[in-house]
């Protein structure tokens, strides 16, 4: 399977102005290179067969006829090639000249898409030569030099649908079209196009590259599509303008590939068609039927092909890999968390808030968020009641960190040793404390929650939950224990991001003593600390039991955001974690994830309130309306079929 990935390219050949034969030779070289690289769609610049800067030579019959001849040569060259070629040329019809993009595959012209908006300002004077293209397609006959006729549709409203690759629907626009307030690409996307191609000749002036980049990438985000932009470059006349060959391949707001400017060459990227289908399926307000009846749908065929993925698969999709972006994201998320809590405290007229502080990552983050909320309200941090509740599994390291951090932040520290209460409960229910089972563990978790709730009653405050989204996805929470609170500030923050939020706070904090404590918390293994320590060290490591959180977060992201099949997620995980985890390990923990994800939905169905901070969340009131009794059979069977 190719998992709905398809390889595409944007190419800028080095041309000679008004020399279609030479230019076509260069184009053919790029087509052959693209085929060798398993490219299925390649896009060339506007008027690439002749050159964009021909000026009044466009009025010469010799140039126009030679351009048409070269179009037929390109058709012939693609006869035995599994690729779609989109290229610009001048085309005469009924004594009028049009600037068109020809869509070619397997020896045929699927259609001609004319430029809709003809610029005639500043350095552009295209209306001197070209007519405005029609929207509604008409069928025309193209005759080659041998007199043979080929029928093809011509118009902007053409949709080229691949019958063998689900979700691949191509539409085209030309240069100026995308710069307009109402570009054809809007209609194309609303008619169902998932890949927009643009044959362009955009000259280079100071600052234009950044604008162009933002425009094309923004259009791909706005239309939830892939956008392949091929720009004219080296070889065009520099009499008045310079063309940089600035090519872009974008997908739903992400730049997958971008060329160096001021030259020629080809860029290649792998598109994820399923990502686009999933986003459009999720956004039901994206109306795909608005213009469909106005379009001529042209079917074509490509052979689905397994590719060695060149696309970068981020192993931490919840965490930006760029340091600047990551810093901004952390600052923003902390602000959202604090704002959510601030509103809840205001609404309930609470001047106090209670949190269980363990010395672990989640409770540390919750405490930091509470300080920001109290500061925003102008309340004394003494109103933050941080309760440490040592029991059988508590280590000196986590206990010390919890106490020191609370004091350094100016919160009120209360210690409640719960060993006697838990032992009494063991007696009440006749449980042998030597049996270190789930009862042994959960008695401690529920006792801690009871203590927090009762202290909150004493102070007239709210209990702030500490559990994160990764734990909720796995159901790694004690029902009516740490599962419960009055407001869960970490409810939509995955574990991989929790770590970065705490690190960001530590890096930005001016108090070195606070930073030192936070850095030590970051170095502490993730643990519920419900089993006795071994030689004074944590004996119960969460990731040894349920698996690495970075793997679970990776799976969670693609399950929640895109609804990918387990096989595709496994394929992507193997690429993302190559050299970190082998395939056997990845598959093992994926099975754990899916089993727990389905089995533990009942815990998520009654979650306390908490702020959404990212594009994915598990709140039963918002993002995840999943039945608690759903079967995992389909997903588990697919995992069992994976061959390693």
Key words describing this protein structure:
19 helices; single chain; 20 strands; seven-stranded mixed sheet; elongated; 2 domains; 644 residues; alpha/beta; Nitrilase/N-carbamoyl-D-aminoacid amidohydrolase; six-stranded mixed sheet; Rossmann fold
Mean pLDDT: 93
Report the CATH C-level class of the largest domain. Alpha Beta
CATH fold topology of the largest domain: Rossmann fold
User: What is the terminal-to-terminal distance?
Assistant: 14 Å
Low-confidence parts, pLDDT < 50 over ≥5 residues? none
Number of strands: 20
Please state the overall shape, judged from the principal axes of the Cα atoms. Answer: elongated
Radius of gyration: 31 Å
Total discrete domains: 2
């Amino acid at each position: 399977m190719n998992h709905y990935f398809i390889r595409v390219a944007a190419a800028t050949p080095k041309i000679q102005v008004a020399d279609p034969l030479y230019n076509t030779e260069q184009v053919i070289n790029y087509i052959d290179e693209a085929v060798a690289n398993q490219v299925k769609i390649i896009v060339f610049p506007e008027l690439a067969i002749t050159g964009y800067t021909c000026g009044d030579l466009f009025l010469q019959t010799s140039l126009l006829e030679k351009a048409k001849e070269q179009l037929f040569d390109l058709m012939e060259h693609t006869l035995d090639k599994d690729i779609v070629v989109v290229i610009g040329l001048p085309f005469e019809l009924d004594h009028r000249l049009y600037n068109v993009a020809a869509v070619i595959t397997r020896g045929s012209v699927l259609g001609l898409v004319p430029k809709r908006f003809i610029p005639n300002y500043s350095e552009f004077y295209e209306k001197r030569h070209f007519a405005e293209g029609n929207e509604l397609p008409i069928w025309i006959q193209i005759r080659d030099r041998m007199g043979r006729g080929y029928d093809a549709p011509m118009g902007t409203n053409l949709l080229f649908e691949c019958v063998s690759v689900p979700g691949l629907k191509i539409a085209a626009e030309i240069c100026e079209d995308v710069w307009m307030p109402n570009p054809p690409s809007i209609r194309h996307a609303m008619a169902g196009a998932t890949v927009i191609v643009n044959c362009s000749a955009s000259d280079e002036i100071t600052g234009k590259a950044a604008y162009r980049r933002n425009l094309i990438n923004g259009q791909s985000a706005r239309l939830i599509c892939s956008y392949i932009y091929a720009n004219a470059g080296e070889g065009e006349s520099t009499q008045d303008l310079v063309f940089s060959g600035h090519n872009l391949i974008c997908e739903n707001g992400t730049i997958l590939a971008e060329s160096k400017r001021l030259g020629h060459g080809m860029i290649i990227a792998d598109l994820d068609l399923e990502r686009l289908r999933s986003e459009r399926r999720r956004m039901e307000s994206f109306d795909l039927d608005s213009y469909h009846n106005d379009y001529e749908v042209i079917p074509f065929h490509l052979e689905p092909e397994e590719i060695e993925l060149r696309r970068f698969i981020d192993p931490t999709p919840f965490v930006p890999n760029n340091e600047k972006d990551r810093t901004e994201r952390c600052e923003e998320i902390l602000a959202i968390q604090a704002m959510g809590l601030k509103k809840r405290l205001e609404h309930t007229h609470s001047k106090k808030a209670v949190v269980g502080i363990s010395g672990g990552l989640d409770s540390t983050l919750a405490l930091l968020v509470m300080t920001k909320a109290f500061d925003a309200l102008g309340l004394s941090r003494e109103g933050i009641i941080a309760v440490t509740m040592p029991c059988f599994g508590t280590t000196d390291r986590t206990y010390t960190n919890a106490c020191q951090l609370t004091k350094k932040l100016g919160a009120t520290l209360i210690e409640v040793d719960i060993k006697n209460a838990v032992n009494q409960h063991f007696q009440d229910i006749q449980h042998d404390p030597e049996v270190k089972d789930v009862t042994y563990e959960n008695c401690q978790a529920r006792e801690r929650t009871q203590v927090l709730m009762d202290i909150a009653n004493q102070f007239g405050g709210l209990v702030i939950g500490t559990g994160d989204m990764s734990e909720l996805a796995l159901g790694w929470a004690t029902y009516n224990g740490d599962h419960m609170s009055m407001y869960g500030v970490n409810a939509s923050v995955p574990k991989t991001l929790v770590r970065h939020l705490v690190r960001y706070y530590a890096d930005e904090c001016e108090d070195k003593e606070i930073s030192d404590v936070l850095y030590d918390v970051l170095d502490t293994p993730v643990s519920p600390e419900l089993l006795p320590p071994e030689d004074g060290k944590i004996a119960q490591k969460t990731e040894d039991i349920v698996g690495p959180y970075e793997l679970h977060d990776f799976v969670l992201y693609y399950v929640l955001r895109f609804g990918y099949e387990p096989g595709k997620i496994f394929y992507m995980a193997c690429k993302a974690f190559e050299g970190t985890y082998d395939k056997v390990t990845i598959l093992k923990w994926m099975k754990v994830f899916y089993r727990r994800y389905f089995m533990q939905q009942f815990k998520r169905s009654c979650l306390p309130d908490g702020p959404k901070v990212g594009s994915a969340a598990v709140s039963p009131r918002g993002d995840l309306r999943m039945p608690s009794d759903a079967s995992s059979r389909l997903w588990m069977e697919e995992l069992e079929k994976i061959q390693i």
